[in-house]
From TrEMBL:
It is an enzyme of class 3 (hydrolase). It comes from Daedalea quercina L-15889. The keyword Hydrolase applies. Gene3D superfamilies: Single-stranded right-handed beta-helix, Pectin lyase-like. This is pectinesterase. Residues 1-26 form the signal peptide. Residues 161-361 form the Pectinesterase catalytic domain. Coiled coil: none annotated. Pathway: Glycan metabolism; pectin degradation; 2-dehydro-3-deoxy-D-gluconate from pectin: step 1/5.
Amino acid sequence: MAWLHFASRLSALLFALHLSTTLALSQFDRAACQYPTEDPFEGCPSNTLLVGPSGNFSTIQSAVLSLPNDTAPYFILVEAGNYTEQVNVTRRGPLYLLGQTLAPNDRTQNLVAVYWAAIAGTGDNAYTSTLTVAPTLNASLTGSGPTGNPVPPGTPFGNTDFRVYNMDFVNDYAPYSDDPSLAVSVSYANTGFYYTGFYSYQDTVYIGKLGNAYFYDSEIAGQTDFFYGFGTAWVQSSLITLRGCGGGITAWKGTNTTFENKYGIYIHDSAVMKVNTSLSIAGHCALGRPWNAQMRAIFANNYLDDSIRPAGYIEWQSTDPRIDYNTTMAEYYDVGPGFNLTGRMDGGVTALLTPEEYEPYSSVERVFQYPFSGEYGNIAWIDFTPWA
Ligand SMILES: *[C@@H]1O[C@H](CO)[C@@H](O)[C@H](O)[C@H]1NC(C)=O
Ligand SMILES: *[C@@H]1O[C@H](CO)[C@@H](O)[C@H](O)[C@H]1NC(C)=O
Ligand SMILES: *[C@@H]1O[C@H](CO)[C@@H](O)[C@H](O)[C@H]1NC(C)=O
Ligand SMILES: *[C@@H]1O[C@H](CO)[C@@H](O)[C@H](O)[C@H]1NC(C)=O
Ligand SMILES: *[C@@H]1O[C@H](CO)[C@@H](O)[C@H](O)[C@H]1NC(C)=O
Ligand SMILES: *[C@@H]1O[C@H](CO)[C@@H](O)[C@H](O)[C@H]1NC(C)=O
Ligand SMILES: *[C@@H]1O[C@H](CO)[C@@H](O)[C@H](O)[C@H]1NC(C)=O
Ligand SMILES: *[C@@H]1O[C@H](CO)[C@@H](O)[C@H](O)[C@H]1NC(C)=O
Ligand SMILES: *[C@@H]1O[C@H](CO)[C@@H](O)[C@H](O)[C@H]1NC(C)=O
């Protein structure tokens, strides 16, 4: 009885949430909303706040802080310009950040950028990030050791549907790899990034515990371990820019869970290229290295330029390889001068997956899980037609 009562209340709540999202979205014409016009709200949903010279908010963070921690969807439209601030999002309900732009399907023409400059030094990496999406500070802490920061039991999940369209996030503490400098940090949250850019040199993208992130037609630029974390990240049709080589492009920590998990970094149909021709890094950059022995990374159907090492992935360190039978450092049909079949075979570190081995990881439906239960199919927050 109690269960039935709870279940019907839950479905009523989910229905109400669905309805309010649908209502707000029915008035949403993304291109019109983001196009700078005399009435900046033209095409925008009703719950839209404006940040910038003609808005009520001069910083993105002040607009975020004005929102209630409820399940109603909100939209923040950001006028063209550079903003120097850290943006932290703790709220549960859907939140979309929209950068004003003349070209909503072309990240190279983005007009909005958020800058911050910090390195970790003796503090936790979490404090450095330009953008953070996590319900609490504690959920966002990286910590140390094979299992990282122990997030307090009972910490609730944070944002269920956070999205960014046409904005860049930069952590420009130093123009080289110095120490962790995050551009984005996601924990206990579902996040989608469309036509965005993330720029730093080390640990640029952190997808932490119970973090889910989908990147589409975006640029991620870095040098050392610049995709790292504990959660699940899927990078689709994007540009991965090498600003040098250090560690690996990816460095993940797997986690023992009571259910099967597919936590890991999945990079699909993308290009991995050095930033410019004056950089001499041919054959030097590793696809990844195991932050712990349960690392899972798959590069599938990508173009790799000649910066990639013949062996592909590498050990963590020769004295501490961190590779065992639970380590997944794999590729599936990558192409380009950075894919050296002889080198991959000789190196003995990179797994070249068969179609059968790849199949369980071959779609977002098969990898994104609901928090706590581990059920698959947590994808309602993904925009599969961002160009529409
Ligand atoms: C600013 O806030 C006021 C009061 O809520 C509102 O009436 C007005 O439309 C807002 N203006 C903009 C540009 O967001
Ligand atoms: C924003 O910063 C970039 C890079 O520093 C600069 O090229 C651009 O002109 C700036 N834009 C504005 C509107 O100030
Ligand atoms: C938001 O609300 C949820 C549910 O009531 C709560 O668990 C959470 O602590 C709140 N978060 C913040 C940042 O207030
Ligand atoms: C954002 O959170 C970080 C900790 O992760 C904190 O150091 C920083 O002050 C926060 N910034 C704002 C604007 O709240
Ligand atoms: C994080 O949670 C742990 C465990 O509850 C606690 O010991 C620690 O003080 C918390 N840290 C912060 C910064 O809240
Ligand atoms: C090439 O990229 C490197 C690394 O980011 C940078 O230091 C250098 O200034 C760039 N050179 C040119 C000519 O853009
Ligand atoms: C997972 O469990 C195994 C066996 O108990 C242990 O050796 C390993 O350290 C654990 N790994 C993590 C990341 O907790
Ligand atoms: C390997 O992974 C399985 C499943 O998560 C776990 O039970 C086992 O303890 C892991 N072994 C090691 C050595 O980490
Ligand atoms: C491919 O890798 C092998 C090492 O296994 C190396 O001898 C060869 O030069 C590499 N080819 C290219 C084009 O880098």
